[in-house]
Amino acid sequence: MLTDSHCHLDAALFDPDREAVLARARRAGVLRQVVPATEAAAWPRLGEVCAHDAGLFAAYGLHPLFLQAHRPQHLNELRDWIERERPVAIGECGLDFHVQGLDVEDQQGYFRGQLRLAREFDLPLIVHARKAVEAVIMAVRKVGGLRGVVHSYAGSEQQARQLWDSGFMIGLGGPVTYARAQRLRRLVASMPLEHLLLETDAPDQPDADHRGQRNEPARLPLVCRTIAALRGQDPEHIAAATSANATRLFGLPA
């Protein structure tokens, strides 16, 4: 059994064939998927998608790349959604210092608000940290008492250790399958397995065998096999351990 800890199955790119995408995932052994949100307007649609399959688990949050769509009142609305819908996590939230034109102060304000909600409701966080890992670590430490995952991790080994010490796992997907991702591959080869989650970030970040194509959760086994080869371990061991990590972090049914 594999768990895709980060998959945007509610994305419009899946509208024509979502059921077929899910069927391929199940045949590939990907039996559970965590589906994080991007903006308040998309929360109802995400909930509807997850309600149609027992293996889909919703998370609600405000993604930094959708900053222009966010409003301060959305944090209050997020509290209402959490109380009513009981998601497995808050997210996708975080910081993005790569894309030009995204106000850093506004990003940090929404991120801090979601960190406080996570502590209030004792929920894990799904964090986006592109060229912002250090800032994320500082924000997490300032609030304290948090846990979660930094998805599509691209920081250093030292930063990864700081995240582990702060109660966070790292999520790895398609990028680790690229031979040029040497730093990432060195990290996953030696890191403690209890801090690792597997993900696809579908429809984004396809693996090296499907570059340029729409990604989907059925391709998670390739990520698993790549990591297993880098670590010199059986794919079944990696699948079992990372699924157990997801179960523990998100409180998923076994």
TrEMBL record:
GO cellular component: cytosol
Record flagged with keyword Nucleus: no
InterPro entries: DNase_TatD-rel_CS, Metal_Hydrolase, TatD-like
SUPFAM superfamilies to which the protein is assigned, alphabetical: Metallo-dependent hydrolases
Keywords carried by this UniProt record: Hydrolase, Metal-binding
MF terms in GO: hydrolase activity, acting on ester bonds; metal ion binding
Chain sites annotated for binding a divalent metal cation 2: H128, H151
Organism domain of life: Bacteria
Residues reported to bind a divalent metal cation 1: H6, H8, E92, D201
Gene3D superfamilies on file: Metal-dependent hydrolases (3.20.20.140)
Family under the similarity heading: Belongs to the metallo-dependent hydrolases superfamily. TatD-type hydrolase family.
Protein name: Hydrolase, TatD family protein
